[in-house]
Amino acid sequence: MLGRFNCQAFLEGTFTLASTNEVFDNTPSLATRVGARPATGTYDGPLAPTGEYPIIPLCGSATVRIKEPVWPPKGSFNPNSIHEDVKKRARKTMKSLGQVLPMNWFQKFVYGIVVWWMGRRAADKFVLMVQSALKAKDL
Q1: Which label site among 31, 62, 81, 114 has the fewest CB atoms less than 10 Å from its CB?
Q2: What are the CA-CA distances from residue 65 to residues 14, 21, 44, 61, 70 (Å)?
Q3: Which of helix, strand or coil describes residue 29?
Q4: Strands, DSSP E only, in 15-79?
């Protein structure tokens, strides 16, 4: 829901032009004919300057205001929970690099060991960075 909220807020409060812009044929009537509303500040999002209209108006069910989702409580995310996934991703990325590098059988063998070792190191480092960032932001 955060993605939908952000998209709605961006389209309605940031991605705007003055009603006199040639996109609106120098009159806000075109904007109002396609369902655009001038910024009113009635939602939790960025506010467009007065007299501006969304370039891409929200229509149909997209006009229903989405409330900003409730953020998870402090301490609910455990960075160690993603360690295994990060390790797999790092190894997969490094393996794909090894497929395009010209190597003989011995170099491929050594590279395989490096990939195995570096995948774990990369995941360890990433988790520590996330923990540090969470702590710095008191999350």
Answers
A1: 81
A2: 16, 26, 9, 9, 15
A3: helix
A4: 16-18, 52-54
- List, in sequence order, every residue forming a beta bridge with 18; answer none if it has no partner: 52
- How many C-beta atoms surround the C-beta of residue 11 within 10 A? 18
Residues facing residue 16 across a β-bridge: 54
Average pLDDT taken over every residue of the chain: 81
Provide the residue type at 1 as one letter: M
Largest CA distance in the chain: 72
Break the chain into its structural domains and give their ranges: 2-63, 79-136
Q: Which residues pair with 52 in a beta bridge?
A: 18
Nearest to 67 by CA among 133, 12, 4, 116: 4
The pLDDT of residue 83: 95
pTM for this predicted structure: 0.53
